[in-house]
Amino acid sequence: MSDVTPSDEPAGSASPEDGPTAGQRVGVVHYRGRFGQRMNAWRKRTPLNPYWLDWKHLRESVEALVPHATGTLLDVGVSEGPYREVFAPQIDQYVGLEYPAAILDKQPDMWKLKNLSRLVQVFGDGAHLPFRTGSVDTLLSTEVLEHVPKPRALVTEMARVLKPGGKLLLTVPFIQPLHELPSDYFRFTPSSLREFAESSGLEVESIEPRGNFASANGAMLSQWLTRSVGASKRQSDGSVILSPWRSVLLLPLTAIIQVMFHLASKLTNDQAVCQGYALVARRPHD
Ligand SMILES: C[S@@+](CC[C@H](N)C(=O)[O-])C[C@H]1O[C@@H](n2cnc3c(N)ncnc32)[C@H](O)[C@@H]1O
To answer: Pick from 56, 68, 113: which is nearest to 276 by CA?
Structure first.
């Protein structure tokens, strides 16, 4: 097992007890009540989820990164660790890092999770990682870069803690509604990702789009309908609360739209617009 040694003075460290005792976890869409939450979990993997096209392409994009992971993997901005199990067979150790300031502000209910210590092993700021230079085999960060005001600095910091030969695995959005406001600063192109990686001393191995013009349009159309017709309330972080009956009535329509655009994405492959990108970059041996 690789030995990851946090430096002596973790940046921005905090404990869950520092968090608020009340609050509501907010996501892109928040369903009311337990029934809604159970429905959401079941629908997630089917076109009955109005965010299915988004979820599916991101999931596939992350799964394609798995063969690049080795040894100890540090997931910067791990949140609830949606990819922990995906990487588990490939690596020795999964270390999740979260930024207390972001959780306190945007996901206060995370502090109340009984299994928080299993989700998050290190608290700190991704821009000042509490790890020694050259100590980590694999750096993973999914859909985090757009939430930091200085994304190049975050990439440079992640490159710093990589071992020579270690890999940085990133996913970023290209088309996505504003979310986690006000901390939503950027969308990215392949050129910006390449520039961030190369100016941080990394060698780019690949930059792959996820989805294409057709799937991005399907995802946006489904989300637009959901947000404009299905929402009963808009939240200040950019998410919406759905009206249960209106969203149920919309489900067949958003399902058909997503399936149709999914089929269209198989027939046409214009990637001038896509849903996001995945970068693989390597820290060269000295
Ligand atoms: C859109 S969520 C993505 C979460 C998770 N990686 C995923 O793919 O589901 C963005 C995450 O970035 C985290 N974050 C924001 N600023 C950060 C920073 N400076 N350092 C580390 N994480 C940060 C937030 O707390 C949030 O969990």
So the answer is: 56
